[in-house]
């Protein structure tokens, strides 16, 4: 049984950590404050995010209770703040602000909140859904991201397999059994030439299709998308895919090393593109985040991509050789491929751990966000891989079948990775600079929204806790709620006196006595017997 099959669980565990995941821009403050009641209409709407957003594709819709729009002019962006002018004729009553923007990491974020002028009234029906993406857009983008990532891994795997595994093994085999080595080499290179032609063309086609699909999903033109980071990086990946084709095809049909090295350098360039188009490109320092992400993708490609190539090439190699003669050749491939796998293991674990730590605020993100749910699903595949590996070791005696089993598991992980890259690891974290807190947490089919503003020590802060269902209506099964603030440094616990002001909407006021870090705990009673809690931190300004 091939020894490298024993590395399946480790491979999938390393791949299970996210690569090029995007933390996305999250709203941390809005003016006017959500659910506030004003004496007169504001002059503008200001939305502040955790990271910069783009003016291209930004939308702010201001919808009064009468269903009419009162936004004035195009939204403007200043670093992390998105602003929209407001018609002074805005009538009294509840107004809904539905916003949508594209963050610098290339992903669209959206949301909605309400405020009232004079007194609260019923909001306009369906106003909170005014900034949603077109139906099916998210799924189309997810499929294309997964396909693009798979093509990059295949290219990296083909280069690594040719350079580090196949050529040295066949060269050694030619000295021991020339006829067997020549037959196996001819069969493998026939598959390699096809992959060298088809995979770059497929990657270029995926990149070309991605432009109009993503532009439609973001509600912008292709020309506007090309002015954004993700559009430019997609074109770069397309260009590299076309540039690598002749070098890789040449390398696949001959033993020459320098065209293979040229293809390898271009493939390393492809390994950086997922990070450039994702959150790594906007982290500080960007060069370090891109290095971590690029090394992770390159290591995953040389390993997982190599397995995929072997799975595609193994049938041809087996048809060209006999069971009696192929043993030493297969043993050499396994031995060298295991070395490649072990070399990549350390890089995968280290870079994947660093990426996970940088993208999550706490362990609770793993079970309180969709991103965490998908990541846990990938870990479930790891557990399945452990069981499958044990079964394969007992029941399968052929190298061909074993790499095919590995390939199926890897394709599953790649698909889940495509989903992960489109999700936010954190849901609306508190502003790192302190001040107002806006937090959203998912609880089954409900979303709990907690706001504390202005979040300044020594002054009263309004506290609002709202729970809505999937269609934006009050979650009427939430029977009761409470909020408290704790300061570990001061040893103080401050309960907030909440009053139910509407269905699934509680409000109160609290004066935070000291500036600094405070732990905020919100508790919900769902039905008669279920209790849920949400914990986060905020920084009270002096």
How would you sum up this structure, described in words?
- The chain is α+β, with helices and mostly antiparallel strands and 542 residues long.
- The protein has three domains: 3-22 and 137-420, no CATH class; 27-129, Immunoglobulin-like; 437-540, Immunoglobulin-like (Sandwich).
- It contains eleven helices and 17 strands.
- The strands form four sheets. Strands 9-10-11-15-14 form a five-stranded antiparallel β-sheet, with no helix packed on it. Strands 1-3-6-5 form a four-stranded antiparallel β-sheet, with no helix packed on it. Strands 2-8-7-4 form a four-stranded mixed β-sheet, with no helix packed on it.
- A hairpin with a 4-residue loop joins strand 7 and strand 8.
- Helix 2 (137-176) packs antiparallel against helix 6 (258-276) and helix 2 runs antiparallel to helix 8 (327-359).
In DSSP terms (H or I, runs of 4 or more residues), the helix count works out at 11
- Major pleated sheet: 5 strands, antiparallel
Computed structural class? alpha+beta
Helix content: 40-55%
Secondary-structure element order, as H and E?
Answer: HEEEEEEEEHHHHHHHHHHEEEEEEEEE
- By DSSP, the count of extended strands is 17
Counted up, domains total 3
- Look at the structure and give the mean pLDDT: 79
Q: How many angstroms does the end-to-end distance come to?
A: 66 Å
Strand order of the largest sheet: 9-10-11-15-14
The proportion of strand residues reads 15-25%
**Low-confidence parts:** 1-23, 392-396, 427-433
User: What is the 3D form?
Assistant: elongated
Cα-atom radius of gyration: 27 Å
